[in-house]
Amino acid sequence: MTKCIEQDFPCQNQEYDAFDQIALLELSQPISAHELVNESAFCAELPVDDELRIGNITYKLYLKFLRGQTGLYHLWVDYDACDDHGNYTMLCVYVGKGFAELRVDSHVRKKWSKNAQLYVTFTSMENRLSKYYEQLFLDVYDFELNNIENPGAEYLFAVWDEERHHLETHLNEVSNLSKIQSFDDW
Ligand SMILES: [Zn+2]
After folding, report:
1. Model confidence at 181: pLDDT above 50
2. Rounded to the nearest whole angstrom, what is the distance from the C-alpha of residue 80 to the centroid of ligand 1?
3. How many angstroms separate the alpha carbon of residue 20 from the centre of ligand 1?
4. In the chain, what are the domain boundaries?
5. What spacing in Å lies between the alpha carbon of 67 and ligand 1's midpoint?
6. Torsion over CA of 69, 115, 38 and 133, rounded to 10 degrees?
C-alpha cells in the first residue's frame, strides 16, 4: 500500500469538480482549478525566515518577477509528501487577487510568522476575472487566513511533483539576480 493511501491524503488525480462545474456554467472559457493551483506559470517557496536565508536571496527577490502584474495568487504550506509517488501535497491557506508583488509582500510582513514556510502560486489575468476566481475559490474552499466572505468548507489541496516543489518556476532567474555565482556554495 502506498503512503498516500495508507495515510489518506490527496496525491493522485486530485479533483476539483465543485469548482470546475460552477466555472463551466458561468464562463465561456474557464481556467480549471487544476491549471490554477498545479500548473501556474509562477510557483515559488519564499525564503521568509531571515535565519535560513542564503546570501542575499530574500523573498523580495522572488516577488520582483510579479512586479506590475495583476492576477490571482494562492499561499500554500506543505501538507504531506508521498514517497511512493514522489509527490508533494500542498494545503492552501489564502487566496487573493490584485498586484501580487505588493499584496504578497504585505502578507509576509503583517501575517506570516518568521519560521513558517510559504509557497506562492500566481496566474496573471485581468482584474475582473481574478475577482471572479477569487470569489469562486472562497465559495467552495475554506482558507485558514481568509477571514471574510469565505463560506467554503473543503480544504484546497495542490499536488506538485518534486521538480515543481523543489526547483520552483523561477529559481534560476532568482539566482541570476542575486550576487551568488555558484549553487555549490549553498
Ligand atoms: Zn502517493
Report:
1. no
2. 10
3. 23
4. 41-178
5. 36
6. -50
